[in-house]
User: Fold this.
Amino acid sequence: MTAIAPAPDPTTSAPASRPGLAPALRAEWIKLTTVRSTWWTLFAVVLLGAGLTTLLVGLNAEWLASPEADEDPRAFITWGMMLAPAAAVVLGSLVVTSEYGSGMIRSSFAAVPSRGRVMLAKSILVASLLFVVGTASALLGYAGANPFLDAQGIGLPLEGDVLRAMYGSGLYLAGLGVLAVAVGFLVRHTAAAVSILLGTLFVVGPMVLLVPGAFGDWLDKVMPSNSGGGMAAAVSFNPNLMEPWTGFAVFAAEVAAVAAVAAWSLRRRDA
Assistant:
């Protein structure tokens, strides 16, 4: 007679394993690359970062070479990267807020119950993608703009601060992408997240110049557009900025602080 094995006791069965980071990254990569908004925003980064730099330098190369010029040509070689952050924050926000708008975020959390892991996977992918595209955009802008400077005898070699501004552009956009992901998880609404970020970068940042005294100077230095944006400029138009790597360390700390608050909030709020 064949013995019949007893049914397993559900109370003593081993708990199901939770998906690790690698499956979460694969799932988020599929979601990120199968929507049109990702490609449109990345195209906007390239168009703004490379296209505007080439256009501006092409129109002003003769003036930059003239004795009347009071600006360093290096300040213009990544000029378009001053506007590319607008597209970067839209991408980072949409990665999160579009799922809250459609209700898909519940499926994401059901598949990967560790909400922090979902946030980490989104942040890694957005930062990696924006670093690559941001650096490539800066290099394309340099390749398009420098021939105009060469024609005027003021060409810039790809070294020193100019080289740092190339990968610094990628680092700045990557940090903004992580910041946008964190703000997206905090506010859960596309218009609100984009408005907060664009307002901080392009409205509040310039307005702090109106604050008088040493406190105003300090605010100007630590605003994200200045603390992080200095990495993306070979020579900044703003003489009040910190040294590029010092400023970027401050910017990274600001991004980490917002991300920590978002992760804490994510564990304690309903989906």
